Amino acid sequence: MSADSERQIEVGRIIRASTTRFAVGCQVLRPQVPVFGSLVKVPVLGDDEVFGLIYDVRMEDDPFVRQIAAAKDLRPEVIEDQRRNRQVPIEVGVLMVGYRHGGTIYHHLPPQPPLSLDVLHTCPPDELVAFTEHLGYFRLVMDARDLPCDELLAANLRYAAQARQAGGHDFLIAAGRELARLLTLDLPRLDAILRRIGQ
């Protein structure tokens, strides 16, 4: 694994937040981020951190892009300049799934959301492994029914298994058992999530 994949990457700054979600504005999409289902974090007061999963990436209208899109024979450098110097930030939606306080990770909503202009970072693989050692955050994801929550959880579990390398298979078995416990009365949904995890 490369040194770049081991370190955290700054995604952007928070532009709005609520009890359960927040949105981050960023200028450029890097190859590593933002990625649907990836675990991210925001440092808050002291050493505390709020954790979330990226569930949406939205590129709103940019007045200059609208004009350029209609032009003929665009040079590659013009396209690259507009992608790097957007007038309207790319918006990344994050669902909160836990927080760290006093060195302990909790899998429920934080007491307060992060503040505007706080910085969002990716979580390196070792932190993803630590966060997913316990699976208490599943309910927070599965209850967000206005989001593609089943796809979101499946994507996150695939990343968590990859971060464990050789131990990924055992992790997915444990995650499947927890999903079976939570979805005993909704077998079609359970089957759909398990199929998505295996893809």
Structural class: alpha+beta
> What's the rounded overall pLDDT mean?
88
User: How many β-strands, per DSSP?
Assistant: 7
Cα radius of gyration in angstroms:
18 Å
* Beta-strand proportion: 15-25%
Q: What kind of sheet is the major sheet?
A: 6 strands, antiparallel, barrel
Please mark out the parts with pLDDT under 50 across 5 or more consecutive residues, or reply none. Answer: 1-5
Number of domains: 1
Tell me the span between the first and last alpha carbons. 22 Å
Q: Total number of helical segments?
A: 8
Series of secondary-structure elements, N-terminal to C-terminal? HEEEEHHEEEHHHHH
Strands ordered across the widest β-sheet? 1-2-5-4-3-7
Question: Oligomeric form of this entry?
Answer: single chain
Principal-axis shape equals globular
| Helicity range | 25-40%
Features:
single chain, alpha+beta, six-stranded antiparallel barrel, 8 helices, disordered N terminus
Molecular structure report:
This protein is α+β, with helices and mostly antiparallel strands and 199 residues long. It has one domain (3-197). Helices cover 37% and strands 24% of the residues. It contains eight helices and seven strands, in the order αββββααβββααααα. It has helices at 3-6, 63-69, 76-84, 125-131, 138-142, 149-164, 168-182, 187-197, and strands spanning 10-17, 21-26, 39-43, 49-58, 90-101, 104-106, 119-122. A six-stranded antiparallel beta barrel has the order 1-2-5-4-3-7. A hairpin with a 3-residue loop joins strand 1 (10-17) and strand 2 (21-26). Helix 4 (125-131) packs across helix 6 (149-164) and helix 6 runs antiparallel to helix 7 (168-182). Residues 1-5 have low confidence and may be disordered.
